[in-house]
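In line with agreed milestones, the collection of sequences with tokenised folds has grown. One record among many is set out beneath this paragraph:
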Amino acid sequence: MNKLLFILFLIVSTISFGQYDMDEASDTTEKEQKVDTYELKKHIYVGGDLSLSFGAQTYLYIAPLAGYEIWQGISAGVSTMYQLYRVNFTNGSSLSSHSFGGGIFARWRPPVFPYILLQTEFDVYNAEDFTTLYSGDRANVPAFMSGLGYAGGMGKAYYQILLMYDFVNDVNNPLPKLFGNIPLYLRYGMVFYLG
């Protein structure tokens, strides 16, 4: 009896075969999604802010940024910053301060008023610590800024002028204030869309 079951099992197993229905297979497999790089580039922009001043006081501010337009003028991105401030005294000596940092931002250019720019950002700067007596000490300085500005278009690019208010107002914030002790900052730069 065991031999008969074994032979029957052997015959059935050699006769059976798997079937593959091409219609069902095409429905169940995921189709490969292709990314349209041109459409992607139309939403990506790069640029930054730049300030220069020379003379007895040298000031250099460079802040590159990169962003992505998410939906109808709303975009987000990252930015970095480097700042040099040097004062040359009449006796030949000089005093220098270097700051650097970066952060994230979100901005909105309303489609009906594309010349208006609203922006908020959170940055962390590494700057000189003015609260200690020893020179050379450094501190990480947070800044949470919001503001509005003007965005003048030039095809796939626009220049921007922003008036920003810092809600943290840390004493070690390295950016130069616009008016006395009010934490208002003026920034200007260019933005270029890749596509």
